[in-house]
Amino acid sequence: MDIRRITDAADVLAAGELFDDAPAPEWTQRFLDRAGHHLLLAYSDGIAVGMVTGIELLHPDKGVEMILYELGVLPDYRRRGIASALIDRLAALARTAGCYDMWVLIEKENDAARLTYLSAGGEYDGETLFVWDFGTATDAGATSD
């Protein structure tokens, strides 16, 4: 498996089945062009089989944190560690960007998401929130004014 940070909208559009709806070319390029917006694709034998998106948020009193916004893996490739690998890579990117944590919200009844985020090391609040704590706040990851 190969995980790549994507900067070209054509790569996202070619992997459209990984998203809830078909990615729109204009929105895709705007997302990729924005500082602090991240999209990673996982490839197996040259086929995009998984994706994760993350968005950095800068707070005046906290520093930068990463929201794990969306995660998807093709049904035939699930339960192979692809989702965990994507989460780990986004977490590494968040640490490099100076984020103090990364978090994701789930629907309480989504057992698959809960198990995925638990296996990827997220700390669960027992309701809807998973957090990966990276330590103290820093402005190293500040991406916009």
Oligomer: single chain
What gyration radius follows from the Cα positions, in whole Å?
15 Å
Largest sheet: 7 strands, mixed
Order of helices and strands: EHHEEEHEHEE
CATH topology: Aminopeptidase
The CATH homologous superfamily is called Gcn5-related N-acetyltransferase (GNAT)
**Total number of strands:** 7
Query: What is the level-2 CATH architecture name?
Result: 3-Layer(aba) Sandwich
How would you classify the helix and strand content by structural class? Answer: alpha+beta
Please estimate the helix content: 25-40%
Mean pLDDT: 93
Taken as a percent bin, the fraction of beta residues is 25-35%
Protein name: GNAT family N-acetyltransferase
Organism: Amycolatopsis antarctica
GO molecular function: protein-N-terminal-alanine acetyltransferase activity
InterPro entries: Acyl_CoA_acyltransferase (IPR016181), GNAT_dom (IPR000182), MshD_Acetyltransferase (IPR050276)
Question: How does this model look, in words?
Answer:
The chain starts with a strand and ends in a 12-residue tail after the last strand. By secondary structure, it is of the alpha+beta class. It has a seven-stranded mixed β-sheet with strand order 1-2-3-4-5-7-6, with helices on both faces. Helix content is 27%, strand content 33%. It is globular. It has four helices and seven strands, in the order E-H-H-E-E-E-H-E-H-E-E. It has a single domain, classed as Gcn5-related N-acetyltransferase (GNAT) (Aminopeptidase). InterPro entries: Acyl_CoA_acyltransferase, GNAT_dom, MshD_Acetyltransferase. It holds the Pfam family Acetyltransf_1. It comes from Amycolatopsis antarctica. GO terms for molecular function: protein-N-terminal-alanine acetyltransferase activity. Keywords: Transferase.
